[in-house]
Amino acid sequence: MIPLESLALFVLACLALAATPGPNVALIVGTSLRYGRRAGLLTAAGVNVGLIAQLAVAAAGLAYLVEAFSHHFDLVRYGGAAYLVWLAVRQWRSAGAGPATSAPSAHAAFGRGLAVAFANPKTLLFHAAFLPQFVTDTANPLAQIAVLAVVFAAVALAGDVLWAMAADRARAALSGRFAQIADRVSAGILVGGAAVLLAAGRR
């Protein structure tokens, strides 16, 4: 059983991380601004499935998978950054065209989120180092790490849903003649997410 004080501290840390924009948030917000709530939520679902897979690897203590990600760290993140820039260019070029003309399918929106979640290998390395810091039962840590992973996933999902909903409200406020501005802001956010990926070192 994790002491309540440690669990509360962990939840606060998770909330702080969920409120910090990164590549995943950039994709969710950019998609919601361009295509609306449904596409944003589907993208958030894809992001969080990827996150849960990474948390499962970290919680299971699969060091060889973490090591494999580490060896290909730069290749994976460069690919993810290039993908985000490609999405940004598409959104910039179609700015003001209206969501119905180019909105991604449910599978495509989900797939985007999943792809970008896996395109940021630093999250897996972070989870592998972050979760054990809150473990109090060092003799049998797996159960506590599993609980922490579930809590982290729940907070991350709630945070991503809130980001998607907020972006959708901003999109509604910028409808009509401001739609093109919203689309270009969306493209800029995606480029920002790519920049964060490129800036992510092995620190």
Could you characterize what this model shows?
- This protein has one domain (22-199).
- The protein has helices at 4-18, 23-35, 37-59, 63-71, 73-93, 106-118, 121-130, 142-173, 179-199.
- The protein is built from nine helices and no strands.
- The radius of gyration is 18 Å and the shape is globular.
- The chain is mainly alpha-helical and 203 residues long.
Short account of what is shown:
This protein has 203 residues and is mostly helical. It has nine helices and no strands.
Key attributes of the depicted protein:
203 residues; mainly alpha; 9 helices; 77% helix; 0% strand; globular; LeuE-type; membrane; transmembrane; signal; cell membrane
SSE arrangement:
Blueprint: H1 4-18, H2 23-35, H3 37-59, H4 63-71, H5 73-93, H6 106-118, H7 121-130, H8 142-173, H9 179-199
Helix pairs in contact: 1-8, 2-3, 2-6, 2-8, 2-9, 3-6, 3-7, 3-8, 4-7, 5-9
